[in-house]
Amino acid sequence: MITAILSVSLILFSVIDIIGSLPVILDMKKRGVVIHAPTATLTAGILMLAFLFFGVAILKVFGVEVSSFALGIHFFRGDNSDGASSGSIVPIAFPLLAGAGTLTTILSLKSTFETVEIIAGITINLAVIFLVLKSTPFLEKKLPKPATEAMRKVFGILLLAIAIQMFRTNVGI
């Protein structure tokens, strides 16, 4: 069970990509967007758990197949010209953290892992998300931009490998 929880955690960590999202988050903060770590984390967690339990049903209500949902298109504007605002729910919690890729991955994990293992993996990732969001002032000072870009590329490659593995497992190659 511990191995499964670690697997789920690492898969979700790669898909959520909180480290790779740091440049976006830091840029938003520089533009005056207020990010409340508890609100963003709780909202992302609620969305993830809702999709774990009701995702297929939610998509069926709208007549959308899981494969159509997984396009990963962002529907939010990144600019905010009217001064400081809160970005805790949109775009941080959704779609940055609990976006199409994360929610679709949670649905696909249900075919391989037990619900309790997925919940544990989500919880571990929410703890990491909370810690990263709370420490953005520190990270902003300490992490040079090349370091965050390098981390983003490493997790991108890892995500690609996971996607290939999931495809091979589901197709039976």
Structural topology:
Blueprint: H1 2-16, H2 22-30, H3 37-61, H4 66-69, H5 88-97, H6 100-109, H7 115-134, H8 136-142, H9 145-171
Helix pairs in contact: 1-6, 1-7, 3-5, 3-6, 3-7
Q: What does this protein look like?
A:
By secondary structure, this protein is mostly helical. The protein has one domain. The protein is built from 9 helices and no strands. Residues 70-84 have low confidence and may be disordered.
Number of strands: 0
Question: Could you tell me the strand content as a percent range?
Answer: under 5%
Number of helices: 9
* Cα separation of the termini: 25 Å
The string of secondary-structure elements, in order, is: HHHHHHHHH
> How does the major sheet shape up?
none
Shape summary: globular
What proportion of the residues is helical, as a percent range? over 70%
The total tally of domains equals 1
Radius of gyration: 16 Å
Sheet/helix structural class: mainly alpha
Q: Would you tell me the overall average pLDDT?
A: 82
Poorly predicted ranges (pLDDT <50, ≥5 residues)? 70-84
